[in-house]
Amino acid sequence: MRIVREGGLDSTVRFLGSVTNVPALLQASDLTAFSSPNEGMPNGVLECMAAGKAIVASDLPGIRDALGPYTGGVLFPPGDHVRCAQLLLELLRGKEKREALGAAHQARIRAEFSVKRMAERHLEIIRAGMRDGQGHPHRKALVTEEPRAI
């Protein structure tokens, strides 16, 4: 809160607590922040991307995978609250960059995370796994040699 006050943003930044209508909140937001210390595939990040919002987030593999090439210099080391605040202030003050990142995120969601694209990816994995047992790195052959007569 101190950083918000010192940055002169206390009239525009709100700490809301629990929210039940997430789509409405995203629509009303200028940008989003994720300061998680660990993430797999972060659904919250994907939701914000779909809403066309710029994102400031912890630099974690799952978040990098979701954002792809559109990180735009807005990732910070997990736990680095000072860098997080700096990035938030930069985007709050930089409307053009914020809007460009939001548009890039929304385009990425449509291209890479649509139901059709996700189904195609799953089918690719299944097909690869069916090819001679060699397509999937974790699949082991059930039979390693011919049975011998006793």
Description:
This protein is mainly α. The chain has one domain: 3-Layer(aba) Sandwich (Rossmann fold). Helices cover 49% and strands 7% of the residues. The protein has seven helices and three strands, in the order H-H-E-H-E-H-E-H-H-H. It has helices spanning 2-6, 22-28, 43-50, 61-67, 81-93, 95-112, 115-130, and strands at 31-34, 54-58, 75-76. A three-stranded parallel β-sheet has the order 1-2-3, sandwiched between helices. Helix 3 packs across helix 6. The longest helix has 18 residues, at 95-112. It is elongated, with a radius of gyration of 21 Å. The N and C termini lie far apart (77 Å).
Lay out the secondary structure:
Layout: H1 2-6, H2 22-28, E1 31-34, H3 43-50, E2 54-58, H4 61-67, E3 75-76, H5 81-93, H6 95-112, H7 115-130
Parallel strand pairs: 1-2, 2-3
Helix pairs in contact: 3-6
Strand content: 5-15%
CATH names the topology as Rossmann fold
**Element string (H = helix, E = strand):** HHEHEHEHHH
Shape: elongated
Give the averaged pLDDT, no decimals.
85
| Helix content class | 40-55%
At the fourth CATH level, what is the homologous superfamily? Glycogen Phosphorylase B
Tally of strands:
3
Assigned CATH architecture: 3-Layer(aba) Sandwich
**Largest β sheet strand count, sense and barrel closure:** 3 strands, parallel
Structural class: mainly alpha
Q: Tally the structural domains.
A: 1
Low-confidence stretches: none
| Strand ordering within the main sheet | 1-2-3
Question: What's the assembly state of these chains?
Answer: single chain
Q: How far is the N terminus from the C terminus?
A: 77 Å
What's the total helix number?
7
CATH class: Alpha Beta
Radius of gyration: 21 Å
